[in-house]
Amino acid sequence: MKKAEAVQYFGSQQALANVLKLHKSAISQWGDTIPELRAFQLERLTNGKLKHDPNVAAETTRSV
User: Fold this and answer.
1) What's the average model confidence in pLDDT over 23-31?
2) How many secondary structure helices (H) and strands (E) does the chain include?
């Protein structure tokens, strides 16, 4: 899942951080892709409106 998609869904990085009970600075450290476990969490919290995409997570793993 791309961070931009989640930020757009919630309206801001701060709103996304609030939903996940994180500091905004944690969201800023993610880069373009949301960490896999957080992506699963967001999928569940949004009742599937945001979807975890294993291919996006794999892109991040390969590029590191």
Assistant:
1) 95
2) 5, 0
The 3-state DSSP class for residue 28 equals: helix
**Mean pLDDT calculated for residue range 39-53:** 96
Which architecture characterizes domain 3-63 according to CATH?
Orthogonal Bundle (1.10)
CA pair distance 41, 30, nearest whole angstrom: 15
Nearest to 64 by CA among 32, 39, 38, 27: 32
Structure tokens at 40: 């699963």
Question: Global pTM?
Answer: 0.83
Type of residue at 31 = G
Question: Residue 1 in contact with residue 56, Cβ under 8 Å?
Answer: yes
Q: What is the pLDDT of residue 54?
A: 85
Amino acid, res. 45: L
